[in-house]
Specification:
Blueprint (H helix, E strand, L loop, with lengths): L2 E5 L6 E5 L9 E3 L4 E3 L5 E2 L2 E3 L6 E5 L4 E4 L2 E4 L3 E9 L8 E10 L4 E8 L2 E7 L5
Parallel strand pairs: 4-11
Antiparallel strand pairs: 1-2, 3-6, 5-9, 7-10, 8-9, 10-11, 12-13
């Protein structure tokens, strides 16, 4: 708790006083990112707090995306939760907002090959298939 220097009314001496106070609450606006595709380029996460203090981002699980600052790079498909955090300060409470996004895998490119008469092989590759 913060301390203030003041006068003691009993003997007119000076002493430190501890005054309780409540932190100011804040809220967060976190723009939805919805679904992303594996082939999508890096994109920016957009979030702001009512305090105006900086917001940081993390992802769980961390192996599906990398986050640098507010830029996100997709690494592999699946569900990932993005957390936007503003840690507050001595006078402002912290706030966290989360959203889950689905990273859609690339559509496979299918090719059909006939090896011998009556034998058909279907090959699949995600390269180039959107």
């Amino acid at each position: 708790m913060p301390q203030f220097f003041g006068f003691n009314n009993d003997d007119y001496g000076r002493e430190w006083f501890t005054l309780p106070f409540s932190k100011i609450s804040q809220s967060m606006v976190f723009e939805d990112t919805y679904r992303q595709k594996m082939v999508d380029p890096d994109f920016d996460l957009l979030a702001s707090s009512t305090s105006g203090l900086p917001v940081t981002f993390t992802a769980t699980p961390s192996d599906r995306v990398t986050i640098t600052g507010n830029s996100i790079k997709i690494l592999k498909p699946g569900k990932v939760t993005i957390n936007a955090t503003q840690s507050g300060n001595d006078g402002i409470s912290s706030v966290i907002s989360s959203q889950t996004i689905c990273i859609i895998p690339a559509k496979p490119t299918l090719s059909v090959k006939q090896i011998q008469s009556g034998t058909t092989v279907i090959q699949s590759s995600e390269a180039g298939g959107q």
